[in-house]
């Protein structure tokens, strides 16, 4: 099987399962190693590719007939596979994008869940729909964006969401959640809580602007634009700067398997932050809403001595302490053991608990 951005093709003829008028192709006991950016070995009880909502509904009908839960998997850029999955793993490959509403300089788009995220950023920029530039080069698909409430360089996905479309896994019924119902928070949403593994996202409605409105508040982005001597940044300038920043700061998963930022940046009280800065004067602090303070998990991990360390077949990247790298291990459990050691070390030294960003599957195996 050969993987490709947002989709893939079979390396050998799959089993063909006919459901009503539609046919879906399902492969039993298929390796998921090509489909997670940590390149961890795990197998799915069944694996299916769907290209539209009708095929998805039929695949879900089949899974219910087999007594298998459904697990959607985009590019596998925010998951840790810790063992085999007794589930039907679904990969959506449709990349539809259409305008569903326009008002003044605002445009609302509906994008299929299988659409590659970075390709969406490029398509909207080329079309003159602005806002997503700060989120360029984030790996994954559109369907994964609301789950994680992806964000970078001062911008979070929730800013653009109008609604999220999906199917209820148990019944196959269509549902639509407004932005408020998604309960977005920092790297969090209802899809990681109450609706985890209960809904498969099929499309997302977002609102962008025809008028350039770039967010330039993030210090590293401002510095990069200044380095480039861009006096009046346009969305295309922001896009280019973000792409270069991410390429310089984060390892390429195709060369060094990783899942991007592995831990969330802790958000603590202002009093706690002041106490920590008194003890560790170099601690970076970023003011948040409600008087709270965000501190960089990467700084804590580096100060605890983990940056660049390797343990067995996994390790912490030497260039960015927030990135855990697979150096050849096939074990998700080995990676999770490293993460646990880092969390314990940071907690012991700073009395701060780090929270993982990726979701973990197959841990019972």
TrEMBL record:
UniProt catalytic activity: UDP-N-acetyl-alpha-D-muramate + NADP(+) = UDP-N-acetyl-3-O-(1-carboxyvinyl)-alpha-D-glucosamine + NADPH + H(+)
Family: Belongs to the MurB family.
GO biological process: cell division; cell wall organization; peptidoglycan biosynthetic process; regulation of cell shape
EC number: 1.3.1.98
Protein's UniProt keywords contain Ribonucleoprotein: no
Keywords of this entry: Cell cycle, Cell division, Cell shape, Cell wall biogenesis/degradation, Cytoplasm, FAD, Flavoprotein, NADP, Oxidoreductase, Peptidoglycan synthesis
Domain of life: Bacteria
Underlying gene: murB
Purpose: Cell wall formation.
Cofactor(s) named in the record: FAD
Protein name: UDP-N-acetylenolpyruvoylglucosamine reductase
GO cellular component, one term: cytosol
Ranges where the FAD-binding PCMH-type domain occurs: 40-211
Residues at the catalytic site: 187, 261 (proton donor), 357
Pathway(s) it belongs to: Cell wall biogenesis; peptidoglycan biosynthesis
Primary enzyme class: oxidoreductase
Gene Ontology molecular function: any one: UDP-N-acetylmuramate dehydrogenase activity
């Amino acid at each position: 099987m050969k993987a490709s951005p947002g989709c893939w093709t079979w390396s050998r003829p799959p089993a063909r399962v006919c459901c009503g008028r539609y046919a879906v192709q399902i492969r039993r006991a298929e390796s998921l190693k090509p489909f997670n950016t940590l390149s961890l070995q795990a197998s799915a009880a069944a694996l299916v590719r769907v290209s539209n909502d009708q095929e998805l509904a039929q695949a879900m009908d089949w899974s219910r007939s087999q007594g298998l839960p459904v697990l959607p998997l985009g590019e596998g850029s925010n998951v840790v596979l810790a063992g085999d999955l007794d589930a039907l793993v679904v990969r959506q490959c449709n990349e539809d994008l259409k305008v569903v509403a326009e008002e003044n300089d605002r445009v609302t788009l509906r994008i299929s869940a299988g659409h590659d995220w970075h390709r969406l950023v490029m398509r909207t920029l080329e079309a003159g729909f602005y806002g997503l530039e700060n989120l360029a080069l984030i790996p994954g698909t559109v369907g994964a964006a609301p789950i994680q409430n992806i964000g970078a360089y001062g911008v979070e996905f929730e800013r653009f969401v109008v609604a999220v479309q999906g199917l209820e896994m148990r019944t196959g019924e269509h549902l639509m959640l407004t932005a408020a119902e998604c309960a977005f928070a920092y790297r969090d949403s209802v899809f990681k809580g109450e609706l985890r593994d209960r809904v498969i996202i099929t499309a997302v409605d977002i609102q962008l602007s025809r008028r350039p409105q770039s967010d330039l508040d993030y210090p590293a982005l401002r510095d990069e634009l200044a380095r480039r001597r861009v006096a009046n940044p346009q969305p295309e300038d922001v896009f280019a700067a973000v792409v270069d920043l991410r390429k310089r700061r984060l390892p390429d998963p195709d060369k060094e398997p990783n899942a991007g930022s592995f831990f969330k940046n802790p958000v603590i009280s202002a009093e706690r932050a002041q106490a920590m800065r008194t003890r560790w004067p170099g601690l970076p602090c970023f003011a948040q809403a409600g008087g709270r303070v965000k501190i960089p998990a990467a700084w804590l991990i580096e100060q605890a001595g983990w940056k660049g360390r390797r343990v067995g077949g996994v390790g912490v990247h030497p260039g960015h302490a927030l990135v855990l790298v697979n150096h050849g291990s096939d074990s998700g459990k080995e990676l999770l053991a490293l993460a646990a050691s880092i969390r314990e070390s940071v907690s012991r030294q700073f009395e701060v608990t780090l929270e993982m960003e990726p979701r973990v599957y197959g841990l019972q195996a």
